[in-house]
Design a protein that fits this description.
Layout (H helix, E strand, L loop, with lengths): L5 H6 L1 E2 L12 E5 L9 H5 L4 E5 L5 E7 L5 E3 L9 H4 L7 E4 L2 E4 H14 L8 E2 L12 E4 L19 E5 L5 E7 L5 E3 L1 E3 L6 H12 L1 E7 L2 E4 H18 L4 E3 L8 E5 L7 H6 L8 E7 L4 E8 L2 E4 L1 E6 L8 E3 L12 H11 L1
Parallel strand pairs: 15-22
Antiparallel strand pairs: 1-2, 2-3, 3-4, 4-5, 6-7, 6-13, 8-9, 9-10, 10-11, 11-12, 14-15, 14-21, 16-17, 17-18, 18-19, 19-20
């Protein structure tokens, strides 16, 4: 049993969070940097990065660390004589535990696959690992596991990618899963086992995984084919009724007469970006239509050149894919450039 002074017990706080059941009545004790005065205002107001977890008898149960997302994760209890393999060995493990979150191996595998796909494109991610766990000399790179909101650009402007990452070696092989702490260091997530959900739910998940959406991927954006069809129909109707045509184009990479229909940007407005004192240049993207208004594809303008976007399919259950999805549900009157706007845009940019 750990003896606590009266002054120490005043600093104890009830634990509140998903790591332990509420019926356990655990308490937490903050661990401050050496030299921090215990009676300082900083001590009283801050959510400390490291905390000891104690039971009702004053015994230390765990040490926990605050993550960048303000959740807490359990620290590892390590014996110096243990090998790294034995420390991270869990019988029949099927994923990683990062704080209160369990990440299945299937998600890890998918993240690694996508990371390898984009590792040759010189984007901000996968990025060189810099931190306290590994030497920069080994050349490890990190990729955010929950990258649905990741903008695959060459800059790190306004990136919101969560606090959990996979670690890849120079050949693209998975080496670890880590989480960023509140102090911008990193901790390793732990191998764990989670009981599979009920059979009916599991079967539903597998069924959804087999169903796909068809469309085009441009950098981080996926344009669902139904979305493109809705735009095509609107443009064709306005062209026929208002005699207003989109931008006419015959150059590379199509080398055939076609129309270029610009997509309206759905992200931050220019005014909002000015408030942040930084303006992020975005590559322009276009729906490419044949002269008879058939869909030829999607293209991206980089400088004065145009590049084709890849035709691809993604699972309908798109929760953890690293793309910004444009689908038919996004279709609103002010979300599609009218044929008149397109024609004016074409005259300016032709």
């Amino acid at each position: 049993m750990t003896a606590l002074s009266y002054e120490a017990t005043e600093k104890l706080r009830p634990y509140s969070g998903p790591l332990y059941g509420s019926t356990l009545s655990y308490m937490v004790w903050p661990i401050l940097p050496q030299g921090s005065p215990h009676r300082s205002r900083a001590f009283l107001r801050q959510e400390e990065t490291y905390q000891l977890v104690l039971n009702g008898n004053g015994n230390v149960i765990d040490m926990i660390v605050r993550l960048e997302n303000n959740q807490y994760a359990k620290c590892w209890r390590v014996d110096k004589q243990q090998s790294e393999t034995s420390i991270n060995s869990v019988m029949d493990s099927n994923g990683y535990e990062c704080g209160p979150e369990f990440i299945p191996d299937s998600t890890i595998t998918e993240s690694a696959r996508i990371a390898r796909k984009y590792s040759v494109k010189d984007y901000i991610y996968p990025s060189q690992y810099r931190g306290n766990l590994y030497s920069e000399d080994v050349g490890y790179k990190i990729w955010p596991i929950y990258y649905k909101t990741l903008v695959l650009s060459h800059n790190s402007f306004n990136q919101k990618v969560g606090s959990i990452y996979i670690v890849l070696d120079s050949t693209g092989q998975l080496k670890d899963v880590i989480a960023k702490t509140f102090e911008k260091n990193h901790i390793r997530c732990r191998r764990a086992r989670k009981v599979s959900p009920a059979t009916d739910a599991n079967e539903l998940s597998q069924t959804l995984a087999k169903l796909t959406r068809d469309g085009y991927i441009c950098q981080d954006e996926f344009f669902h084919y139904d979305y493109l069809t809705s735009i095509r129909e609107k443009v064709q109707k306005e062209a026929e009724t208002k005699l207003s045509l989109p931008r006419y184009y015959t150059g590379a990479p199509f080398h055939t007469p076609c129309y270029l229909v610009p997509f309206k940007e759905k992200r931050k407005s220019f005014k909002e970006k000015r408030k942040s004192h930084r303006v992020e240049p975005m590559d322009k993207k276009y729906l490419v239509l044949a002269i008879d208004f058939r869909i030829m594809g999607v293209a991206m303008q980089v400088g004065k050149d145009f590049k084709r976007c890849e035709r691809d399919k993604i699972p309908i259950d798109n929760q953890h894919r690293n793309i910004f999805l444009y689908s038919s549900e996004d279709i609103l009157p002010n979300n599609i450039a009218s044929a008149a706007e397109i024609a004016q845009y074409g005259r300016i940019n032709s």
